[in-house]
Amino acid sequence: MAKHFNIAICGSARVGKSTLVNALCGKEVAQTSGSLCSITDEMTKYVLNRTCQSVNEATNSTEYSITIWDTPGIESWTKDNVQKHFTKIMLESTPLCMIYCASPGSFARLDQLQWLVDTCIQSNIFCALVCTNKYSGGSQQRNHVLNDFHSLLSRYHTMTRDESNIKYYGNIALCTSVNSIIYEDIDLGVRKGVEGINELIFAITTSLKDEKLAAWCYTIAENESFWSTMSEKMIEIFNICRPPVEEFLRKEGKDIAIFLIPLIIKAIIKK
Ligand SMILES: Nc1nc2c(ncn2[C@@H]2O[C@H](COP(=O)(O)OP(=O)(O)O)[C@@H](O)[C@H]2O)c(=O)[nH]1
Ligand SMILES: [Mg+2]
């Protein structure tokens, strides 16, 4: 039987929600707006279906179905139906986490964000507040967004760690800034590579537990950049024995996620 999980992505239109979803998943799951006007009132969902092979019994496989909910722009949240729909996702299913996106200088409704974070924290849903498209504004605008995130999250938990540009608030929330795709401003001669995505994925991994963690690993299973860059750290935090992994890498070259995820799940179960 398939196990169902949800992830909610929230924020205003055109802040980079779809671009972030694609960067996290390591493939095009969400349509980005490009130059088109994409303001929509509808909830969009992307469903990822994964089959996992159990480590011991090759016959016994569990299916994971992960639904990523791309919610309409925060401006329309006052509408009763949207709020109702949103609460339904938050309370009636098992969201792994809520990822809130705001780009530098973007429209920020802190009252709405607070309502959202309140709902999540009461329901034990991990919150990742992300300043998306970080180079699209100046550093002042970016810091403004990050300061808002920090003061909001500090109300729920003191900041417990500040590492790799990620602030952690216990195991309940984090905030950070990312650049999900290459940023280029030809006039100013500025070019910035992708930043903060692998770190964000890793931070969420270390903050989740049990089944939610397993489902998160499946969400990012096809992100080759993450697994090739961060597999060392994953092996370390899950205490996975290194030699079989090295042997697999030597023989197979890639698809490390397919090999590593069952080992991670085994490690989660053992804990
Ligand atoms: N360079 C760069 N562009 C981005 C980033 N995030 C979003 N964009 C661009 O901003 C526009 C809106 O992004 P999109 O993901 O569709 O926003 P959404 O409406 O919140 O889903 C698109 O043209 C993206 O290419 C980023 O991190 N870096
Ligand atoms: Mg979108």
Automatic annotation (TrEMBL):
Signal peptide: none
Pfam families: MMR_HSR1 (PF01926)
UniProt-listed InterPro entries: GTP-bd (IPR006073), P-loop_NTPase (IPR027417)
Domain G: 6-89
Gene Ontology MF terms in the entry: GTP binding
Highest taxon in the source lineage: Eukaryota
Name of the molecule in the record: G domain-containing protein
Organism (species): Rotaria sordida
